[in-house]
Amino acid sequence: MKIICIGRNYADHAKELKNEVPTEPVFFLKPDTSLLPKRNPFFIPEFSNDVHHELELVVRINKLGKNIEERFAHRYYNEITVGLDFTARDLQAECKAKGLPWEKAKAFDGSAPLGAFIKLKKDDDIQAMDIELLKNGETVQKGSTSDMIFSVDSLVSYVSKFVTLKIGDLLFTGTPAGVGRVVINDRLEAKLQGETLLKLNVK
Ligand code: MG
């Protein structure tokens, strides 16, 4: 399986990192080794002094698809959760300055912790979901998927033009504003629609 991550999908986050608001989706990949086994702590890697949390809605692909039309995209997923796109912001800044790929800042081991998946119900609106991240009990990120620049269905369609989507692939759909550094002993808690789906200790 692969993990496809969307960058800059909320205007308020693009602005906080002084990036332009994109006119088409930005995506990059993480390998399966970025997943963090359940209940494991996240260890800050020694190569970074500025690892940031990025809270994101995550969609699990449940059907093989290529060149998916946006109007059919909802048939390609039926489970969602919240996840963290951990980012070594210091390495990413270096990569961006040099015009190099971001992978070492984004794709490192354990950089994609996931919450428990929940099944989408018939009347759920994936573009009206509240996501929230608490750090040490205080809300640091809070967003609604209604503020996405590109909808989940448009992302599934767009990505599938370039990359075949397979069962089990994960789509991280971008982060709202409020990204910030994590340090040793931080406790993170991620919620979807008010329900805690992920708890994580930073070591
Ligand atoms: Mg992200």
Q: Descriptors for this entry?
A:
six-stranded mixed β-sheet, 203 residues
Describe the structure.
This protein is α+β, with helices and mostly antiparallel strands. It has one domain (3-201): Alpha-Beta Complex (Fumarylacetoacetate hydrolase, domain 2), CATH 3.90.850. It contains 4 helices and 13 strands. Strands 2-1-10-4-5-7 form a 6-stranded mixed sheet, with helices on one face. Strands 9-8-12-13 form a 4-stranded antiparallel sheet, with no helix packed on it. Strands 6-3-11 form a 3-stranded antiparallel sheet. A hairpin with a 2-residue loop joins strand 12 and strand 13 (195-201). The longest helix is centred in the last third of the chain and has 11 residues, at 152-162. Magnesium ion binds next to strand 1.
Chain-wise SSE layout:
Elements: E1 3-7, H1 11-16, E2 26-30, E3 51-53, E4 55-61, E5 77-84, E6 87-88, H2 89-98, H3 103-106, E7 118-119, E8 130-135, E9 138-144, H4 152-162, E10 170-172, E11 180-181, E12 187-192, E13 195-201
Parallel strand pairs: 1-10
Antiparallel strand pairs: 1-2, 3-6, 3-11, 4-5, 4-10, 5-7, 8-9, 8-12, 12-13
The protein binds magnesium ion.
